[in-house]
Structure formats: C-alpha cells, structure tokens
Amino acid sequence: MNGDGFGSPPWGPADPVPDLDDTQAMPGLGSVPGPTRENDDGGTASDGEGPPDGEGPRDGEDRNGKRAGKRRRSFWRELPVLVVVALVLALVIKAFAIQAFFIPSGSMENTLEVNDRVLINKIVYHLRPIHRGDIIVFDGTGSWDFDSPPASSNIFSKALGELEGLVGVSQDSNIYIKRVIGLPGDHVVCCNAAGQITVNGVPLSESSYLYPGNKPSTQKFNITVPAGRLWVMGDHRLVSYDSRGHMGDPGGGTIPESAVLGRAFVIIWPPSRWGFLNIPATFEQPRLNASNAAGGSAAAGGSSAALEAALDNGTPVRPAGSPLPLALGFVGAVPVTWLQRRLRTRRRSRQPKP
Predict the structure, then answer these.
(1) pLDDT at res. 338
(2) How confident is the model at residue 341 (pLDDT cuts 50, 70, 90)?
(3) What does the alpha-carbon distance between residue 166 and residue 144 come to, in Å, rounded to a whole number?
(4) Are strands 44-46 and 135-139 parallel, antiparallel or unpaired?
(5) Per-residue model confidence as pLDDT tens digits over 67-124
(6) 180 DSSP β-pair partners
(7) Which of 57, 171, 173, 290 has an alpha carbon within 20 to 30 A of 40's alpha carbon?
(8) What is the C-alpha separation between 50 and 325, in angstroms, rounded?
(9) Could you tell me if 161 and 170 are in contact, meaning their C-beta atoms sit under 8 angstroms apart?
C-alpha cells in the first residue's frame, strides 16, 4: 500500500500512445489521415498521404480526356451524315415543295420586276385546282418551245442539275412565269366595247396589276380554252410574249396544265420588294364560273407583225439560288441525326460488356 491507503495497481504503467505520424497503412484501406497542420503560407494540409499539391486524380483526368476525345471524334464522324441528310432533304423540298426563281425580263412588271426573286409553291395544286389570277411558273417544252433538245435522261446529269439548282447556277431556257387568265372551258375574248378582256362574257378589271399605260391587249383574240389547258398572259402586255404570241401553235397559244411547276406566292428579294402575290379581286367574280353558251373557237393564223414587233424575246424565268431549301434541309437533318445517334448509343448500351 502507499501512503494513501491504497496499494499499487496490479498493472504496469500505461503504454504510451504512439505518435500519429508513425501510423501505417492498413492493407486494403489506405493510410489513416493524420492531423492537419498549418502550412507556411497559412493554408492547411493533411499529414496523410495524398496527391501532390496542384494535381488532381490521374484516373479522372484520363477518363475526362477520353470522353472529350470521343465527343470530338463523334462530331466529325456525324458531320458528313448531317450534310448528306441535309442535302437530300433540300433536294426533296426543292423538287416537291418550294423552289426559288429569278425574274430576268419585264414581262410581268410592275407585279414582278427584273431581278426579283420569287418562291413557288409546288404542293398547292395537289390540294386545290389552278385558279384564275394565279401567277404560275411552267415548262414551255412541247407547247411554246418545240425546237428545244430533250432533257438528258442520265440520272447523274439530273442529280448534278438539281444540286446546281440549289445554289442558282443552273438555268432552264424553257421555264416561264405568267398570270392565268382562262381555265379549261373558258371563253376568253379581246375585247369588248370598253376595251376589256372578257372571260365567259364577264369583263375583267385589270387596272390593279396591269403595267401603267398598257391596254389589256392590242391584239384581238377569241378562244375557248381546250380541256386540260390554260390561257396565260403577262402583266406588262406591250412586251409580254404570252399566249397571244403562240396562237398559231398547237393548242392555240394555250399551255397544258401538266406543264405547271407551281404557283408563285411571295417575293423574297430584294427586301424592299418583299410581299405576297395575291389573286386580284376581279378574278373572284362569281359570274366567271358560268359557262358561255356562245362557245367560240380557237383563233388561228398566228399573231400580227405589229404584235411581234412589240413583244420582247420571251426571255424565260431562271431558277435562282435560295437558302430556304438548304436551311429547311438542315433543320430537318438535325433531329434525324440526333435520333440516329440515340439509337446507336442505346444499341451499344445493350451489348454485353466483356
């Protein structure tokens, strides 16, 4: 016993606690972190083993680097697909929906001026018939242009022509733009006592679209439009080489409905000329749809020398470049490419991993 009445404890003095700096790593668990201490610069650091200052986890860096590399390679692999899909969609849009045309002559002034660009709607006549007053673009081959060489049947030549048409390089000398005056079965006459053109006996009031100072026509004609054909005229009547100038041709100057490519519905260039091409009110008269009992016959003998001298050379409309088909093609290509990528990723995720 000691002086306090208690004996010495039956055990020895407690073993000293080991310095934490001497801790060893436990297999499979890593080192035990030691106490933090203040650095010389005022910061804190652990005495445990860790990555050197300023370095992140190398494994993470590798993974992130691989992901970024894969994304870059994926983009460059998918870019050609995106371009091809966009071109295909643009060609489909140009062939079946919308196409731009350049106006090279004054035969439709002042409705359309030289250097105007217009868009034509190729779908509309699949949804409704052609109306009087429509401004149409049509192919004159076989009705106005009989000496033109036949179009090439080579599929590669056709594809090249379509691609050129997207940027407005190609031009077809047989494509025209005019206003529809008479439909199949209409009796079209020039002129009544007031100098007006009549359709089925109903006079047309054309002052809203005729070129200022022009008469409706200086050439007399009297024709019943054959089935499946159209009587068309320009708005600048003194210089327009239209149905009147082809009255000696088969069809009496009319064109087949099947030759119509589409309806011009908007001016897209220049910006100062932007606007829709609406049907003039005179063509909305209900009496125009009443058939004329008089019947009339197709005019023959061709146009007079005076009219030939007044008419221009019939410069046709030319296909023009427009960014719209390409823009719509790229808009449609983006979701298609995204869907294709999603399907490919999903298919890979379902594959068993090694």
Answers:
(1) 61
(2) low
(3) 26
(4) unpaired
(5) 666 666 666 777 777 777 767 766 666 667 888 888 989 999 999 999 999 999 999 9
(6) 232
(7) 57
(8) 59
(9) yes
Q: Which of 94, 143, 178, 303 is catalytic?
A: 178
CATH superfamily of 99-320: Umud Fragment, subunit A (2.10.109.10)
Tell me the per-residue pLDDT of 147-181, one tens digit each, with 9 for 90 and over.
655 555 565 555 555 555 554 434 567 899 999 99
Residue 153 phi, psi dihedral angles, 5° rounding: -90, 0
Give the containing element (helix H, strand E) for 13.
none
353 is annotated as an active-site residue = no
Strands 36-38 and 135-139: unpaired
Kindly report whether the peptide bond that precedes residue 323 is cis, defined as omega within 30 degrees of 0: no
The answer to whether 183 touches 223, Cβ cutoff 8 Å, is no
Burial of 31: CB neighbours in 10 Å, binned 0-12, 13-18, 19+: middle
Residues whose CB is less than 8 angstroms from the CB of residue 241 and which lie 6 or more positions away in sequence, other chains included: 107, 234, 311, 312, 313, 314
> CA 143, 146, 151, 152 torsion: positive or negative?
positive
What single-letter amino acid sits at 216? Answer: P
Q: Is 107 a catalytic residue?
A: yes
The token pair that represents 272 in the structure block: 């100062």
Q: Which of 125, 124, 103 is nearest to 178 (CA)?
A: 103
C-beta separation of 199 from 222 below 8 A: no
Of the candidates 94, 105, 107, 217, the residue annotated as catalytic is 107
**What is the arithmetic mean of pLDDT over 259-270?**
94
Q: Tell me if the pTM is above 0.70.
A: no
Q: What are the phi and psi torsion angles at 156 (to 5°)?
A: -70, -35
Domains of the chain, residue spans: 99-320
Torsion sign across C-alpha atoms 82, 86, 89, 95: negative
The C-alpha atoms of residue 197 and residue 206 are separated, in whole angstroms, by: 9
